Amino acid sequence: MYLSRLTLSHFRSHKRVALALDARPVAIFGPNGTGKTNLIEAVSLFSPGRGLRRAAAQDMARRPESLGWKVTGEIRGATGLHEIGFVSEGGSARQVEIDGKPASQIALGRLARTLWLIPAMDRLWIEGAEGRRRFLDRTTLSFFPDHAQLALDYEKAMRERNRLLKEQVRDGHWYRALEAQMARSGAALNANRQAALLRLARAQADATTAFPAVELELVQSEGAMPETETDLRHALEESRFRDIAAGRTLVGPHRTDLYGVFAAKGVPAAESSTGEQKALLLSLILANARALAGDIGAPPILLLDEVAAHLDAGRRAALYDEICALGAQAWLTGTGPELFAELGARAQMLEVTEESGESRVSGAGSAP
Amino acid sequence: MSRRNDPIEALIELMARLPGLGPRSARRAVLYLIRKRAALLVPLAAAMQAVADSARPCLNCGNVGTSDICEICQSEARGNGLLCVVEDVADLWAMERSGVFRGRYHVLGGTLSALDGVGPDELRIPQLLSRIEAEGVSEVILALNATVDGQTTAHYIADQLEDRVALSSLAQGVPIGGELDYLDDGTITAALNARKRL
Fold first, then answer.
1. Cβ separation of B159 and A176 shorter than 8 Å?
2. What residue intervals correspond to the zinc fingers (C4-type) (chain B) (predicted)?
3. pTM for the complete prediction?
4. B169 CB within 8 Å of a chain A CB
5. CATH class of the A125-294 domain in this structure
6. Residue A364: its pLDDT value, please?
7. HSE of A366 in the Cβ direction (CA atoms, 13 Å)?
8. Looking at this predicted complex, what is its ipTM?
9. In which residue ranges of chain A is pLDDT below 50?
10. What is the DSSP letter of A206?
11. Domains: count for chain B
12. In angstroms, what separates the C-alpha of B184 from chain A's closest C-alpha?
């Protein structure tokens, strides 16, 4: 799938941008602070969630006007052409419109798949489990659009249970009722995650790639994750007294962590070099994209922020070859055009500059 | 026009607070009432006064009526052993509109939510438990919303009643006159799981 048209209105540093695009990768270059990442953040809205910065809608408004903003695009994929729009007015939450009608995030997830790798993820393997869990769930969501609803249901029931724990409520029926809800969504959540890892493993095994394979495993911060709904329900019931003491729920999929091993070297991802850690993430994004291309008949949109600069010329050329072989519309950013020389005519180039606080985008695909 | 303490303005302001109405529609409604003073405004005011004097919740089931025990609870014919548990009076009225259910109701007045400070005692759940024996209930039908809170509440009640009375819940699936193409995955899954042999 790819964006054939993208317009931004008062979105972050961009006052007005209108781009006509084809399916080729999009290479964006320009000095630091001109608004390259803002451009791909707008593209990241074309998937459920809050975009690649996880920002609130009001923070996406152009300053100093803060009038609200609008992003629209035309996406072409296996299900045909769809017009998708996002609007936020006066600091209100972002509204999604698909083909002119208000739509849900879940409906959006069915139409558009977007995967990204951004500099903030450089420390993913060594920082807290929360970031890895988010990465795991974004990957899972790309395969299973219902994953987001399961996560919301689980979270809701868990927050209710945590409140009972904090207030030391002793009503066993109430706990059982909430634990039944948590077990149902939690077991499905876990099954989705396992299935997503399996797809990634297969996509890595089947491909010839310049990027190192990662062996992934789900681990719990303590004990083992109960597999079935019944097991999870029993585990929650057994944990109740301990949980009351802790004031929160200690078992379940919210305590899952993603453990990665650099397969060829047998070294945990967290202990690999900085460059290797990035290569491992890139490898996973590409595997995710290949698996999705097989699933839905079209590769997802890729957003690779400042990735080119961290690769040597050989790896860079290999990345470009893989993206082109996949046929993905990958949005790449970098400070200068020389970073994208190996792409040549296989990509469309955009230059971003800044004039008195306003980003300007020019290049092959930009319309006046 | 917008004089303070003007009774017309006061009426508009009150009407605008009604669900489904805004300032503009409230103004239209008030103007219409004034024009139809004898036919509508006076009887409406009288009807409102009468309801204000007499409306009260049924002590037994929580329905809204004009006596301590509502008509449904008073009717011998409706004491057929079936008891339908609903979240809200609006749900009870929706069930009644269909005219199919001939048993009695129990209105909880909300759903369990620890985060909102709503516990079993706020929900008339103890009254429900005591009605089972007192009214010889043979089956409890849980007609609660298919949300996390609704299902938690249904589970909570079922957990306490499972050995005492037959329990059932409303079916989930394809709405009558609905098209499969427009249903979400969860509804299709529920409909498939609850499929019927023809």
1. yes
2. 58-73
3. 0.83
4. no
5. mainly alpha
6. 57
7. 15
8. 0.75
9. 366-368
10. T
11. 2
12. 9
